[in-house]
Structure formats: structure tokens, C-alpha cells
Design brief:
- This protein is an alpha+beta fold.
- It has 2 domains: 126 residues, Phosphorylase Kinase, domain 1, CATH 3.30.200; 204 residues, Orthogonal Bundle (Transferase(Phosphotransferase), domain 1), CATH 1.10.510.
- It has 12 helices and 15 strands.
- Strands 2, 3, 4, 5, 6, 7 and 8 form a 7-stranded mixed β-sheet that branches. A two-stranded antiparallel ribbon has the order 1-14. A two-stranded antiparallel ribbon has the order 9-12.
- The longest helix has 22 residues.
- Bound molecules: adenosine-5'-triphosphate and magnesium ion (MG).
- Magnesium ion binds next to loops.
- Its main location: membrane.
- It catalyses: L-seryl-[protein] + ATP = O-phospho-L-seryl-[protein] + ADP + H(+); L-threonyl-[protein] + ATP = O-phospho-L-threonyl-[protein] + ADP + H(+).
- It holds the Pfam family PK_Tyr_Ser-Thr.
- One of its GO terms (cellular component) is plasma membrane.
């Protein structure tokens, strides 16, 4: 999926000799650094680069040769995905101590156009080097080479066998069961809540979308791609001013209009993804009739309280989901999509709401499947045709 960006592309100075370097931004002023603070007037918690210094030893530094070996020379049969920033390959690496089973990894090789690719690569390393949460992808290490033939920037992640949420939601050969969808919503919300509220600094993720929600062997979600993440505002500030970057169809309207990035911009985007999960449709689908091309405009015609709401539910789960749970998710999505950013819920409120939806669904399904059900209970189950 294409990103939109107003970043200027800067030419990198390639070094004479090939060298592997530690991740740092070179030739850039502090104000250009995506990780630099926008305000220093108040005594503030440590910044991400400061926190990273303490933890950098946890990341492994790979040579290009190691990663070439891991991916059979970046063979295209090993390629598992491609995004705006580069290609992703499946590979295997040896454990650090040399013993034990090989480790399956995903290697992302960035298209480094000048310093821009380097900037995202660096942000990814510093953010992922600092965070630790079951719903965030684990970065194992990185590779950086500045050679006569250009610069190489790579990232090595734990491999996620079920790839991304996008691969399942919009792929006709895959159907995510309703229950799995709810669990994915909750896990992704927990990852985002941790970024917003669980660290010394607030982190604005900025690139929440279904292709960045990766799925492990049990379909547990993990957020990936921190290249566009930013430290949130500190002190009295309410926003961070940035160039507008992100992905069409996902970004909050006030952010697109003003470039003012807030924690609430992520919450809007979370609402967009909730609707993608409910409907199985992309945020923009050009091949649909005009009234259905923009997901958010289309779903407005089917309010969660109305009887027509069920018409927008992904046909692949119809007859196999809980309408009342879906309506609650629809209402939650609408609150995230409030035009007034201040009225959007916080991520921890979103997490609580989703936990409640899941609990209610569980209770409803366990009472529906009681073995000693009477005929009247059976009738009520029949009436609720959209059960979990
Ligand atoms: N750790 C991983 N394990 C397994 N597959 C992965 C992993 N990381 C990425 N992928 C796959 O590679 C695809 C491309 O990822 P990438 O982050 O480069 O681009 P994207 O998210 O699709 O788009 P964009 O560049 O606009 O963010 C993902 O959609 C996913 O299918
Ligand atoms: Mg991605």
C-alpha cells in the first residue's frame, strides 16, 4: 500500500570505505531528527534515544553477508512482502552462540533514497529497541552498510507465520473467524495503549493499518513498522508539528489539515481499522460503486443502532457472529472517529470496551450451548442467528 509523504528527499554522502555503523543520524540537525524533542522547557522524562542507549546491547548487529546467507542472496522466492519502504524476505539465522536450531526471521531491506530511508530505519531501531510488549513485533537486530555502491539498511524481526491482518481481511481465500477478529482488535488496542500510556514517554505510532498488524502462529496480533512513530508532546503541548505522512484513508482529518500530530490521531486510525475488520473492506476501494468507495462514507449509511447495520458485516462471517457485539464495536469505532479529537476515547478505554464485548460474547455463547437447554432456550438461540 502506498504512503503519502511530504518529506523532502535528501542525498546521502556515501563514505569512501565500506563500514558498518551504529544506528545514529548523521549530517542532520537536531530539529530534523524524528526522535528529537519538540519542547525542552519543562523537566521531562528521558527521550527515546536516551532510553535506547541503555538497551541497544539487546539488538544484534548483522553483517550484510549474514543476511545474504539467511535469505539465499535475497532470492525472490524468499520474498514475503513489499511495502513503501522496501522488501521483506523470510530467512533463517544462526543463534548467537552458534548452537541450537536456526531461527526463522523476517528481513526487511529498505529502499534507501538518500537519508529518508535511513531516518525511518533509525526510528524503527530506536523505538523497537526500547519497547517490550506481547502485542508489538520483536526486532532482533539490524544491518547498516555504507559502501561505494550505496547504503544498505536492513532490519531483522521475529518471523510472524500468519503474516499481516491485511493479508487475511482482503484475501478471498482466507476467512478470519469472528472470535479471532475480536481478539485481534483487543490485542492491537493493547499494543497501542502501551505505546500511548505504558512508557516513560508517550509514543504516537502514526502508521496504524491492517498491513502493520502482524499475526503470530496463534493469530495473536503484533504491531510493526515504527519508522513513522514520534515521541508525543511533552509539558503543556498538545501536539507535535510534523510533515503529514501516513497512508491514504487512515489519517485523522485534523492531522491531514494542520500537520498537528496527537495521540488522538492514532485513535481515529484505530476506528478506521475496526471498520475494516467488521466489513472485510479496505478503507478505499476504487473498484466499487462511487457511494461505496470510501469505507467511512459508506458505513455512515448503516448506523450501529439501525437494523441495516448487519448489511455491512463481512459476508464471510455472516451467520457466524454476534450482531450485538458487532454493534458495540461499531459504536466504539464511531467514538474513535469523532471529528472532535478531544471527544475520542483513550486507548485504555478502548481496551476496556473491547474486553467487555468479548466477555459478553463468551457469556452469550456459553449460555447458548448449554447441553441441558430447553426448547424455549433453543428458540432464542435460533432467533439470534448471528451468534458467536
Ligand atoms: N516480521 C514479519 N513476519 C512475517 N511477515 C512480515 C513481517 N514483516 C512484514 N511482513 C510481511 O511483509 C509485508 C510488507 O511489509 P511492509 O511493512 O514492508 O509494508 P506494508 O506494511 O505492507 O506497507 P507500508 O510500507 O506502506 O507500511 C507485510 O504486509 C507482511 O505481509
Ligand atoms: Mg508494514
Amino acid at each position: 500500500m502506498k504512503c503519502f509523504s511530504m518529506f523532502s528527499k535528501e542525498k546521502s554522502k556515501s563514505k569512501k570505505r565500506e563500514s558498518r555503523s551504529a544506528p545514529e543520524l548523521r549530517n542532520q540537525s537536531k530539529s530534523d531528527n524524528p526522535l528529537s524533542r519538540t519542547t525542552r522547557s519543562m523537566p521531562s522524562p528521558r527521550s527515546i534515544p536516551e532510553m535506547y542507549k541503555e538497551k541497544e546491547h539487546n539488538l544484534r548487529v548483522f553483517s550484510l553477508e549474514e543476511l545474504k546467507d539467511a535469505t539465499n542472496g535475497f532470492n525472490r522466492t524468499f520474498k514475503i512482502g513489499e511495502g513503501g519502504f522496501g522488501s521483506v524476505y523470510k530467512g533463517t539465522i544462526r543463534p548467537l552462540n552458534g548452537g541450537g536450531d536456526p531461527i526463522v526471521v523476517a528481513v526487511k531491506r529498505l529502499n534507501t533514497h538518500g537519508l529518508q530511508g535511513h531516518k525511518e530505519w533509525l526510528a524503527e531501531i530506536q523505538f523497537l529497541g526500547v519497547v517490550s510488549h506481547p502485542n508489538l513485533v520483536k526486532l532482533l537486530g539490524y544491518c547498516s552498510v555504507d559502501g561505494e555502491r550505496g547504503i544498505q539498511r536492513l532490519l531483522v524481526y521475529e518471523f510472524m507465520p500468519n503474516r499481516s491482518l491485511e493479508n487475511h481481511l482482503f484475501n478471498t481465500t482466507s476467512t478470519l473467524p469472528w472470535r479471532t477478529r475480536l481478539e485481534i482488535m483487543l490485542g492491537a488496542a493493547q499494543g497501542l495503549a502501551y505505546l500511548h500510556q505504558g512508557l516513560e514517554v508517550k509514543v504516537i505510532y502514526r502508521d496504524f493499518k491492517s498491513s502493520n498488524v502482524l499475526l503470530d502462529e496463534n493469530f495473536r496480533p503484533k504491531l510493526s513498522d515504527f519508522g513513522l512513530a514520534r515521541e508525543g508532546p511533552t509539558g503543556d503541548r498538545t501536539h507535535v508539528s510534523t510533515a503529514v505522512v501516513g497512508t491514504y484513508g487512515y489519517a485523522a482529518p485534523e492531522y491531514v489539515e494542520t500537520g498537528h500530530l496527537t495521540i488522538q490521531s492514532d485513535i481515529w486510525t484505530f476506528g478506521v481499522v475496526l471498520y475494516e475488520i467488521l466489513t472485510g473492506r479496505r478503507t478505499i476501494e476504487r473498484n466499487r460503486p462511487t457511494s461505496e468507495q470510501k469505507l467511512l462514507d459508506w458505513v455512515k449509511q448503516f448506523p450501529p443502532d439501525s437494523r441495516r447495520f448487519s448489511m455491512i458485516i463481512d459476508p464471510r462471517v455472516r451467520g457466524n457472529y454476534s450482531l450485538s457485539a458487532a454493534q458495540k464495536v461499531g459504536k466504539l469505532a464511531n467514538s474513535c472517529l469523532n471529528k472532535n479529537a478531544k471527544e475520542r476515547p483513550t486507548m485504555s478505554q478502548v481496551v476496556e470496551s473491547l474486553k467487555q464485548v468479548i466477555q459478553e460474547s463468551e457469556e452469550a455463547s456459553s449460555s447458548a450451548y448449554k447441553p441441558a437447554s430447553t426448547s424455549s432456550t433453543r428458540k432464542s438461540v435460533g432467533r439470534r442467528s448471528n451468534k458467536v
